[in-house]
Amino acid sequence: MIRQSGHLAFFLQRCVLPGNTRPVCVAKAIRDQKMLCIRKFFLLALVFSFVKGSAQNSADLYQVDALEKVFKERAYFPPLQDDTIRAAAGETASIQLVIRANRMLTGLSATAVCLPGNTSKLTGKTGWVTYVPVGRSYTPASKDLLRSVSGYFPDPIVDDTLLTLSPGEINPLWVSVPIPVSTAAGVYRIQVRVNGLVNGKKEQFHRTVAVKVYPVKVPETSLWITNWSAHFNPVSLELLNRGNKVELYSPLYWELLKVHADMMASHNQNVHRIYAAWNTKYTLRDGKYSFDFTNFDKEAELFDRAGALKRIEGGHLAWRSGAWDDPFFVEVPLEDNEATRKLKQAPNPSIKLYGMRSVLLPVDDSRTQNFLNQFLPALKAHLEQKGWLGRYMQHISDEPTAKNAPSYVAISSYVKKYLPGVKIMDAVLTSKELKEGIDVWIPVLDVYHKDYAFYQELKKNGREVWFYTCVGPRGNYANRFIEQPLIQTRYLHWINYKYGATGYLHWGLNYWGGRDPLRDDASRDRGKLPAGDANIVYPGYKKLYTSIRFEAMRDGIYDYELLKMLEQKDAAKAKGLANELILNFNDYDNSILYFRKVRKRLLEALGD
Fold it and tell me: Which stretches make up the Glycoside hydrolase 123 catalytic domain (predicted)?
């Protein structure tokens, strides 16, 4: 049965019978006339639909929250309840849009400009969010684990490619807006413009986003942050050179190292791991060493100029002698000869040793002590001469356990004799067994949770406490895994604030496992390393691409700073805001909408 719409009724009212129609034919004539009018109506509706489709935009732009992971299969983009981006001066505002193609789109690029109307002017940087296959999911999984129908997750932000979209296809667009600390408070309108080709003709699509800058300034960040880089391994740098070899300490090596330093500095990294032992040129004659620290100095100065070196993280001096719980041995450079080739080689054979061979020996070996007795005083004198001694910290070895803790403490004690005042730092998987060996304690997050009272006592006694995440913890703990909600990567630094950890360490800035990290399975070693654990940036030609996780991490570091600022003004309010979102070490309020409300209250409290 056809229900008469307003339009159909109008057409039926206009249908009049011919004057000579006989009464017996009236019913049939009315029926025929109605059917004719119905056909006319649906024909006009079809024409109207065609005209409307012809006038439809070639693409639509939607604003979504920058903490949303937008999967390729997503189709619905409701308006945000609050689409204003809120930030302090000194932060970087993150904007995420999604473009949906209604026709075939090619050659898509994007720009972001600040529209007139403010005394200050902001500039935006744009990049397309691309997708990587996660591969094997990690276990035990989080209750908040995200699922993708395709198995592909958004992560890299690629800023130098043109995008092609088929009709109905979507893709996120990321816009970063650095806000100089001198920026005046006010609402800034950022217009994002997407240019592309439709049937060979140029078209532009745009959307304007409001960025509200509060009368709050963050001149610098105080949370100690280190993400370890694999740049000392030339194979890692080859991926920034189209697969071609990069000679250690060549001009290209230093050029690519600067790329790393700039990326780290722009994401609030202020601690950098430099291997003094690996970057030193040695000679050994009749038991006497000489040391050339030129390459160590170049790396330190490069990161210092970039703004990523408030503290120097001296690379590890010792390594496991065998299995995971086996004792630690010191890395010792000796003459490369038949005798030393029988000794266990140190784990980085790519370094330049100029006729030397790096081997592993116990700390009580006379060759070890001969080296340390000369190297450590020479390093200390050099750091003093460069004015870096107060910034320098020293690793012994990574992740000591209860079983190999005695060998760790023995090496630490030996080093402290020759580097008095230099803090010993390390990521740890145990606690009490190392009590006298470490000054900057960095427990993995679940160990920090389990032994929280122990670490609080250490802080009372003047020790620093950070925490780290890596391949673990898993389950419901926050981490940087690609399969986790993006808000949990940001929450890492709310955990820093709530539980009083003044630093964060992660091993995987750029430990790419394959030859094409933008397309390779993101999990490594058959799932032993969850997707996203080994890297948080991606390689381009002579550049690094950031990721949505690295952006979230940077924004979380700003959150930490704002909370510390509010603590100076109203400690109870700062702690209350953190408690609303971080319920426990492994329990969080993951509502993005509620997070935005809490952060708005944080900025308002600071701006009053």
Answer: 240-566
Residues ≥6 apart with Cβ < 8 Å to 319: 328, 329, 331, 346, 347, 360, 397
Residues 117 and 211 sit within 8 Å (Cβ to Cβ): no
* Residue 564 in this model has a pLDDT that exceeds 90: yes
* Nearest-angstrom CA–CA distance, 375 and 282: 10
pLDDT at 542: 98
Residue 47: CA atoms inside 13 Å, Cβ hemisphere, count? 6
Strands 92-101, 152-158: pairing kind:
unpaired
Which two structure tokens, joined as six digits, stand for 156? 């890299």
Beta strands in 244-396, from DSSP E residues, in sequence order: 271-274, 281-285, 288-292, 311-314, 318-320, 328-335, 356-361, 392-395
- pLDDT, position 353: 73
Residue among 527, 533, 528 nearest 444 (CA): 533
- Provide the whole-model pTM: 0.90
Q: Are strands 423-428 and 440-443 parallel, antiparallel or unpaired?
A: parallel
Packing angle of the helix pair 571-581, 548-569 (nearest 10 deg)? 150
Take residue 203 and report the two structure tokens written for it.
Answer: 């078209």
What is the C-alpha separation between 539 and 518, in angstroms, rounded? 8
3 state DSSP class of 7: helix
Neighbouring C-beta atoms of residue 76, cutoff 10 Å = 5
What is the rounded average pLDDT of the residues 585-601? 99
**DSSP string covering 509-525, please?**
SB---SS-TTTS-SSBT
- Please compute Rg for the chain using Cα positions: 31
Per-residue pLDDT reduced to its tens digit, 427-454: 999 888 998 899 999 999 999 999 999 9
The span from the CA of 532 to the CA of 554, in Å, is 16
